[in-house]
Amino acid sequence: MAETIFLTNDPLTRKRWARELFRLLLKATEINDLVGTTPNAIIQQRTELGKGDGDEITFGIRLPLVGEGIVGRDPVEGNEEQLRFRDFKCTVEELNHAVHTGGRMEQQRIPYNLMEEGRDALQEWWADRLSDLAFAHLCGDTSFKIAGKTFAQDPVDPDSDHWLKVNDVATESAMTSADTITLDFLDRMKQRAEVPVSSDAYKVRPLVIKGKKYYRVILHNYCFDQLRKNTNVGQWGDLLRAANKLALPNVEIEYNGMLISKSERIRKVVTDSTNPNAGVFRNVLLGCQAAVLAWGGAGETKSTRLSFVPYETDAKRYVNIRGGGILGIKKTRFGGKDFGVITGSAWGAPLET
C-alpha cells in the first residue's frame, strides 16, 4: 500500500513550520502586549516590506492640527489647515540562528522528535532576541550589539526634553543608592509626557483604554521593588486593586493613569562599583507609536516573514535547522526628539537578604 510522506526537509513542511514560527513568535515575546498594527499601538508593526522591496521602510506620523478654528460667519473656504506629516526610515537586516539536531544514532537513542524540539528552541530564541532588541531601542542602550555587531541601526540616547533623572542628578554615572524611584518621580515622568518643556518637543500620545487615557510604564525589577519599599502598605494595596480591576496582561499596579509593570530587560547603563548587580537603569514611560517594528520578506515567498530551513551535512547523516528573518526595530524620533517615550533613570539593586 502506497503512503504519502512529508519528509522534514519537504518544501511544504518548511513553509508550514515557518508560518507557525512567525504566528507564535510575538505571543512568546515579552513585548507581545505592546505590539500592534495600528497607530494606537506602542510598537507599531509594519509588514508591507516584501521580498525584493529594499532594506528600508518609511514610517510616517500625522501631527495634530494646531489651528484655532472658524468662528461664527467667518469663511471656512480659504482658511483650511494643511495636514502635517513627519517620517523617518527604519532599516531592516537579516538575522539567523541554527541548531544541530544530531544524527541517526541520536534519533535512535532518545524518545524525542529532535526536529520539533529544534523548531521550538528556535522559537524561544527568536522571542528572546526580539524582546532584547525592543528594550534596547526603547531604553536607548547605545552599547547594545548582536554577536558584537550593530543590528540594522544602533539604539540612540534619549533627548534631554524626554529624559529625567531621579533627584535631577546631572549624569547617570553620578547617581547613587540615594537616587531611587518614587511615586513623585513617576508623576514627573507623566507630566513631562503631557506638557513638553520646549516648543519643539513632542507630547507623548496616551493609550485610550475603556474610554480613559493611560501610559505604560515599565520599570526594572530592582526599581519596581524599590518603589514598593518607598510606598506605604495601604497605598500599595490600592494600586494593586486598581490594576486588578483593569485586568490587563503584565500590569502589576495602576497609579495616576500609569499602567506599571516590571521587566529584567530594562537596560542597566551604569554598574555600581561595589555591587555588580546594582546600578542605574533606564526605566520608560511609553505612549502610542513609541517605536516601529518592521519585517522584510525572509521566506520563500514575498509575504513570508520568517524562513525555516532544515539542511543536511556530512553525507546527509546530520540534520540542522536554520531559522531566519529580516527585521528592524527603531525608536520613533523626529528632528532628534523622541516621539513616544519618556526615559526615567533611577538607581536599583537586589533586595537585601
Properties at a glance:
single chain, 353 residues, alpha+beta, disordered N terminus
Question: Could you outline the blueprint of secondary structure elements for this entry?
Answer:
Layout: H1 11-28, E1 35-36, E2 43-46, E3 56-62, E4 85-91, E5 93-103, H2 104-109, H3 114-139, E6 163-165, H4 183-194, E7 207-209, E8 212-219, H5 221-229, H6 233-246, E9 253-255, E10 258-262, E11 268-271, E12 279-286, E13 291-295, E14 306-313, E15 318-331, E16 333-334, E17 337-338, E18 341-348
Parallel strand pairs: 1-2, 2-13, 6-18, 8-10
Antiparallel strand pairs: 3-4, 5-15, 7-8, 8-12, 9-10, 11-12, 12-18, 13-15, 14-15, 16-17
Brief summary of the model shown:
The protein has six helices and 18 strands. It has helices at 11-28, 104-109, 114-139, 183-194, 221-229, 233-246, and strands at residues 35-36, 43-46, 56-62, 85-91, 93-103, 163-165, 207-209, 212-219, 253-255, 258-262, 268-271, 279-286, 291-295, 306-313, 318-331, 333-334, 337-338, 341-348.
How large is the share of residues in beta strands? 25-35%
The ordered H/E elements are: HEEEEEHHEHEEHHEEEEEEEEEE
- Helix coverage percent: 10-25%
Secondary structure tally: strands: 18
Please tell me the overall pLDDT: 86
* Distinct helical segment count: 6
Tell me the major beta sheet: 8 strands, mixed
Q: Uncertain spans, ≥5 residues at pLDDT below 50? A: 1-8, 108-112
Shape type: globular
C-alpha end-to-end distance: 68 Å
Question: Over all CA atoms, what is the radius of gyration?
Answer: 24 Å
How would you classify the helix and strand content by structural class?
alpha+beta
